[in-house]
Alanine dehydrogenase (Aureibaculum algae), 360 residues
Amino acid sequence: MIVGLPKEIKNNENRVALTPAGVFELVKNEHTVFVQKGAGFNSGFSDVDYTDVGASILDTIEEVYAKAEMIVKVKEPIAEEYGLIKEGQIVFTYFHFASSQPLTDAMIKSKSVCIAYETVEDKNGTLPLLTPMSEVAGRMAVQQGAKYLEKPIKGKGILLGGVPGVQPGKVLILGAGIVGVQAAKMAAGLGAHVTIMDVNMDRLRYVNDVMPSHVVTEYSNEYNIRRHIKTHDLIIGGILIKGAKAPKLITRDMLKEMHPGTVLVDVAVDQGGCMETTKPTTHEDPTYIIDDIVHYCVANMPGAVPYTSTIALTNVTLQYVINIANKGWEKACEDNEGLQKGLNIANGEVVYKEILENSH
């Protein structure tokens, strides 16, 4: 199969879909790989790194789309790419269709085959291609939240870990999934007091077992959330519902109950966000303030640490890329039920029920 690796053009998206090691494996399986010039540069990989393992370099994104039978990307295609996607072309990337009707409509119109990283499942029902980026985003949420709590950026002026004689900051984490657990681990490591909330008691038991004693668990409901937002300095949203929009757990009226300078980090922004006042931002302009509350809602947080993220992503996507390239998408999906769950749109038809429910 002819596989294309375009350069990501979404604002400040520095990742690339495959490392040279990943391309090496594809070439070893006798596939042809075209890489757009400079695609790996921001992740620390030169064009020579790719040609050394057997890829060919093409100058433009148009050439990559024109030649490839399968496009492997990191982020969803943006408007400039819609017209480049051909009928029957496989596009394997993060799509997050639930949060974008124009993207959904464009992919239906293109009659391409859209396989979404974020809905591929493994035999345990978990999301293996979302996991490493959730791990990165969960850890970054605390790193960024700690920075935006600083006064020059209109935060409360709190050092999360505190110092001797001064209480540490308080972090409230909504969701005890991958994002929540990684965020709790980082916040706890800094010495902050952490409250993590979820409706899944099994997850709360797990967190209780593995985390130090200054990480406390609490059942998530509106009453408890409203009680905690008044006293916590950094609030991290890490809610995920497979393929669907996240519920709004922090509503607009709740901002008035928070202390000015509180920081909200909504990691669920890709799926529409779990806070009513969430709107996607970029690494170029990451924050905005509503009612004196700092919002950090960057839709591609792992793009800021592309070297780590690209390697972590290739580690999990490569086996699926090779599988599709070796067998074709239909046979690959037929043989692998988890990969089949990743099939969102095929030849102009929406085949993933959560997208159908969110489409209007």
